């Protein structure tokens, strides 16, 4: 999950410029932590725009944040976030269309605005409990120090994952 900010910036600029050249009237852009510079660039163009800012993806708990089996037989989710911190999570498959659809239905209402979207606010403890309930397995949340968390990942991944989680 390495995020190359320069690649994102270059790609978004090219797509936004192409939209302007093609005469597109309205650009709906999905924005997040790593794309605020591109959001500013889009705002500088002669095109109306809105920005969809989804929370953290619930689907990440099926992949990169999935619980793993500990030596004690329990499953664990490790992160630097406080166990009680409310995390804005979104079901990207089930709920994204609701928010983007609202922008498309009323473009003037959302013009030049950031539409922050989350299915709900859930703490890491609540996420662990929900996964336990659904799977029938014991899942615990462990808050780690930034140093330990960083040491568990390749440097390029840690350089992205740490800032994304420090905001909570």
UniProtKB/TrEMBL annotation:
Keywords: NADP
Domain NmrA-like stretches: 31-166
InterPro entries: NAD(P)-bd_dom_sf, NmrA-like, NmrA-like_oxidored
Coiled coil region boundaries: none
Cellular component GO terms, alphabetical: nucleus
The keyword Lipid metabolism is annotated on this UniProt entry: no
Database matches in Pfam families: NmrA
Protein family: Belongs to the NmrA-type oxidoreductase family.
UniProt protein name: NmrA-like domain-containing protein
Organism: Podila minutissima
């Amino acid at each position: 999950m390495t995020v190359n900010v320069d690649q994102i910036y270059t790609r978004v600029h090219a797509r936004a410029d192409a939209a302007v050249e093609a005469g597109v009237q309205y650009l709906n852009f999905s924005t997040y932590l790593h794309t605020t510079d591109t959001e500013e660039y889009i705002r500088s163009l002669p095109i109306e725009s809105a920005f969809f800012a989804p929370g953290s993806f619930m689907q990440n708990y099926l992949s990169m944040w999935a619980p793993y089996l500990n030596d004690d037989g329990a499953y664990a989710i490790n992160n630097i976030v406080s166990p009680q911190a409310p995390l804005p999570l979104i079901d990207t498959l089930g709920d994204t269309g609701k928010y983007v659809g609202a922008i498309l239905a009323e473009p003037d209402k959302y013009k030049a605005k950031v539409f922050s979207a989350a299915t709900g606010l859930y703490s890491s403890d609540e996420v662990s409990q929900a996964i336990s309930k659904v799977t029938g397995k014991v899942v615990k949340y462990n808050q780690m120090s930034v140093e330990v968390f960083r040491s568990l990942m390749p440097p390029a991944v840690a350089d992205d994952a740490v800032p994304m989680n420090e905001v909570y």
